[in-house]
Amino acid sequence: MSALLRIGVFDSGFGGLTVLRALLPQMPAAEFLYVGDTARLPYGSKSQATIARYAVESAQFLVAQGAAYLVIACNTASALALDAIRDAVTVPVLGVIETGAASAAAISKSRDVLVLATDATVQSHAYAQACAAHGLRALEKSCPLLVPLIEEGWTEHPITDEVLRIYLEEAMQTARERGSTPDTVLLGCTHYPLLRPLLERALPPSMQILDSAETTAACVRHDLEARNLLPPESLSSLHAARGEDETPSPASRCRFFATDSIDKFQRLGSRFLGHSMQAVELMDLGG
Ligand code: DGL
After folding, report:
1. Of all helices (H) and strands (E), which one includes residue 140?
2. Which end of the chain has fewer CB within 10 Å, C or N?
């Protein structure tokens, strides 16, 4: 990889590849390093101290590999470890909670938002706080069974459909009790964009689904622009910098690191990324 802008993307596992997938076309002349801490996934059921320790180790690894900007694609790490990561590295760090809340604020008319997330994210109330700062009321719903079902590849399975419908019904029951009328569902977990078809079928058409992957990619671009860090758009400048004749494929601009099975990362990861993956490198961050 040559060094134009190198962006590090971190997630507890494969889910952050949905964010990388959205970032690639937004920044055609940037290179990406992706860490999936698959050995220690899920983060969503762990304590704040553990999540912060794990996330800081991955962030430091990415910076040591040359990342000049970090995207914390993991909602759980963004909710519970963003300050710890920012204290531990010297490069700019963007999390997904604020970007999600800002995007919800831009589209919600009722000002009530339903946030679906892991248990740790919900317990942190990071989304509720970020939404409140934008004048939104957030109803946070923890959906602990969804990540394992998605990891299993059951994104269209009737059981996943049933589990999702139960969570949504519970959330809407709470909304009725609180007199809340959410018109926007914020997907506050890296994995949930893969359930979009099920969500669209389960939700009334009046409810909008906000995919944090898309909104994060747009925010990264704006933030890089504001910091004057955005590389030239033209792919020819990237080719010239690399001395290449051919247009590089999106995947050739990425290096992937996983802390557990390479095979599984390639198999599951390609579903999140949307195309097959180049070589994945095994890394050891300890226990
Ligand atoms: N990446 C996590 C998130 O976005 C979901 C998977 C996990 O629990 O580690 O919250």
Report:
1. strand 137-142
2. C
Strand partners, 31: 6
Q: How many CB atoms lie within 10 A of CB 154?
A: 17
Residue 162 is assigned to a structural domain of this protein: yes
Q: In this model, does residue 168 exceed pLDDT 90? A: yes
Residue 206 has a pLDDT of 92
List the residue whose alpha carbon is closest to atom 7 of ligand 1.
Answer: 42
Among 9, 11, 14, say which to mutate for ligand 1: greatest number of ligand atoms within 8 Å of CB.
Answer: 11
| Final residue belonging to a domain, choices 185, 211, 237 | 211
pTM of the model: 0.91
3-class DSSP state of 110: coil
Residue 133 burial (CB count, 10 A): 12
Instruction: Report CA(235)–ligand 1 centroid distance (Å).
Output: 33
Domain assignment of residue 225, yes or no: yes
Residue 213 pLDDT greater than 70, yes or no: yes
Q: Is 131 part of the annotated catalytic residue set?
A: no
The verdict on 128 and 168 lying in the same domain is yes
Bridge partner residues of 274 (DSSP): none
Q: Pick the catalytic residue from 74, 131, 143, 219.
A: 74
Q: Each residue of 233-272: pLDDT tens digit?
A: 655 455 555 555 555 667 778 999 999 999 989 988 988 8
Confidence at 205, pLDDT banded by 50, 70, 90: very high
Residues spanned by the domain of 129 = 97-211
Ligand 1 neighbours by CB, cut-off 6 Å: 11-13, 15, 41-44, 74-76, 118, 121, 147, 189-191
